[in-house]
Amino acid sequence: QVQLQESGPGLVKPSQTLSLTCTVSGGSISSGGYYWSWIRQHPGKGLEWIGYIYYSGSTYYNPSLKSRVTISVDTSKNQFSLKLSSVTAADTAVYYCARVNVNYGSGSSPVDYWGQGTLVTVSS
Amino acid sequence: QSVLTQPPSVSGAPGQRVTISCTGSSSNIGAGYDVHWYQQLPGTAPKLLIYGNSNRPSGVPDRFSGSKSGTSASLAITGLQAEDEADYYCQSYDSSLSGSGVVFGGGTKLTVL
Q1: Residue A65 in contact with residue A50, Cβ under 8 Å?
Q2: Which one of B9, B36, B46, B88 is most buried, by most CB atoms within 10 A?
Q3: Chain B positions in Cβ-Cβ contact with residue A112 (cut-off 8 Å)
Q4: How far is B61 from chain A (nearest CA, A)?
Q5: Could you tell me which residues of chain A have a Cβ less than 8 Å from any Cβ in chain B?
Q6: Residue in B112, B101, B78, B84 with CA at minimum distance from that of residue B4
Q7: pLDDT digits over A21-73, tens only?
Q8: Three-state SS string across A34-60, please?
Q9: CB neighbour list of residue B59: distance below 8 Å, 6 or more residues apart
Q10: What is the pLDDT of residue A65?
Q11: Average pLDDT in the B36-65 region?
Q12: Residue B105: which residues within 8 A CB-CB, separation 6 or more?
């Protein structure tokens, strides 16, 4: 059973960089067929895709966040990470790491495993 | 404003059937991209409910079903139970000129009366 666990600061100051790491267990990030993703949910709101990365390092970002987002992967640690720069209060949200299964779906792949989520608050 | 449009809320009595719509456009659902559905119980992460328009992952009751036609998709829940009270999200892929990527609906809150 694949498990994902987010870790990182729960409080970030405005203008700083939000950094989160997702540790994957029960499966290898290096196995093909999956994209490793970050998704966020503003308090009381819907889901917003941030971006994802393949184990090879290829990345795909939400166009609306692309200028501020960097997703990286460390296959030796079975982890992938998110950096979101120049944060404001509007970036306060629950951040989920997740696995996108490209073996399912035609051109559009589902998220089949989610982390429990971590609340990140942007405040001074 | 979400790329995929869902009704903010739906409700039904136990045992009834409810449907949740997900309306897109020619750059996402209408372009042939599959639709997936998620159930999010209060305080928990979303859970995959339907993938590839109409397929259920192992463990999801057959009371849940999905369909897709044209630029829209629907999630149907039959034999409504109290434990079905949750938020439901549709997801697809969008390839518009302004950029492409994963898109979600705004979510629908299901209330079991």
Answers
A1: yes
A2: B36
A3: 48, 51, 57
A4: 16
A5: 37, 45-49, 51-52, 60-64, 66, 96, 100-101, 104-112, 114-117
A6: B101
A7: 999 999 999 988 999 999 999 999 999 999 999 999 999 999 999 999 999 99
A8: EEEEEEEECCCCCEEEEEEECCCCCEE
A9: none
A10: 95
A11: 96
A12: A46, B2, B4, B5, B6, B22, B89, B90, B91
CB atoms within 10 A of CB A76: 8
The least confident of A6-15, B56-65, B94-103 is: B94-103
Work out the number of other CB atoms within 10 angstroms of the CB of residue B80.
Answer: 20
Nearest to A113 by CA among A20, A8, A22, A44: A22
Residues of B with CB under 8 A from a CB of A: 2, 31-36, 38, 44-48, 51-52, 55, 57, 89, 91-93, 98-107
Rounded Cα distance between A72 and B17, Å, is 44
Amino acid at A20: L
* B67 in Cβ contact with B53 (< 8 Å): yes
> Please, are residues A84 and A12 in contact by the beta-carbon 8 Å criterion?
no
Query: Which amino acid is it at B68?
Result: K
